[in-house]
Amino acid sequence: MNNNLLEVFEVKVAIAGAGAMGSRFGMMLAQGGNDVTLIDGWLAHIKAIQENGLQANYNGKNVSVHLPVKLQSEVDSTEKFDLVIIFTKSMQLAQMLSDIQGVLGQKTKVLCLLNGLGHVETLEKYVPRENIFLGNTMWTAGLEGPGKVKLFGFGSVELQNVGERKEEDAKQIADFLSQSGLNASYSDNILYSIYRKACVNGTMNCLTTLLDCNMGQFGATSTAHQIVVKIVNEFAAVAKVEKINLDVSELVKHVESCYDPSVADHYPSMYQDLIQNKRKTEIDYINGAISRKGQKYGVPTPYCDLLTAMIHAKEELLEAK
Predict the structure, then answer these.
(1) Which pLDDT does position 140 carry in this prediction?
(2) In the chain, fewer beta carbons within 10 Å around the N or the C end?
């Protein structure tokens, strides 16, 4: 195992959760010359990658990359990784960490890039605090079927150490990701950034899913602005109790940048999961998390309460698994 990621020519990386975003990071890191293994729980996806490679529409160009891919319940515990990047769905995090315990060495760094809130508590049950790094990404990706993804646009990554005095390790990881074009940077306030992204997920994800539309179509409706303002205000009110100050006006503009023509045609991950693939969503870790925190802090969150309940109702109607 390597203490300093940048001291080695090739870093041994595992992507735990090889859906759309995990596949994007795996492909870009592999193209950067790194040893990358995909780990996932979707058997059809794994078989498709094993047989045909990871197929991607990469900014309009068809690309195929052959990567090692393993079922999470069958990972080889004798294999250890320098860096594990977590891209499961939030509700799958604990099971993934339990399944891959054998590949986590004493020095393995674990970078969690999940959507939503409240993941550190789960991570600490399986990973030493000094090895945990938390971040978020603004890259986009779509899952078009087993072994097939659509990758487009440009993005970035922000990350920060959870353990004390691990800032240099966090900066090393950011530099390493940037070497493969992932545009990563160190943040000294990652919780602000995570809340900021959660505002996007807490609007675009659930609203496009419930209204069966893409982001641009939602933005073109007469009520879009009013709805976004209400939801962002609820996120900001909860964050304020946790001493995280969100600028509501700036965040509303940030959310509404999703209507830009360059990304307006995108269907967010929750839409992909529920509408396209009949899979359960992460709503309990986005709007649902705000609802729970609101109840705890005595902060009213009627929009998040309703959106959470409606997404669960939609899951039942579509018999999501």
Answers:
(1) 87
(2) C
Q: pTM here?
A: 0.84
Report, in angstroms and rounded to the nearest whole number, the Rg of the chain calculated over CA atoms: 19
Q: Which residues are catalytic?
A: 197
Contact in structure between 16 and 100 (CB atoms under 8 Å)? yes
User: Residue 92's closest CA among 67, 112, 77?
Assistant: 112
User: How many Å apart are CA 85 and CA 278, to the nearest integer?
Assistant: 25
Mean pLDDT of 75-97: 94
Site of tokens 């709503």: 283
Number of domains in the chain: 2
| Domain coverage including residue 241 | 191-317
Residue type at position 307: L
- What count of residues does the chain have? 321
Based on the domain organization, do 42 and 181 belong to the same domain? yes
> What CATH number does the domain containing 248 carry?
1.10.1040.10
Q: Which of 51, 158, 69, 70 is nearest to 113 (CA)?
A: 158
Residue 274, amino acid: L
CA angle 74, 38, 35 (to 5 degrees): 115
Whether residues 102 and 124 fall in one domain: yes
Token reading at 91: 């509700």
258-283 residue pLDDT tens = 999 988 999 998 998 999 989 999 99
116 & 155 share domain: yes
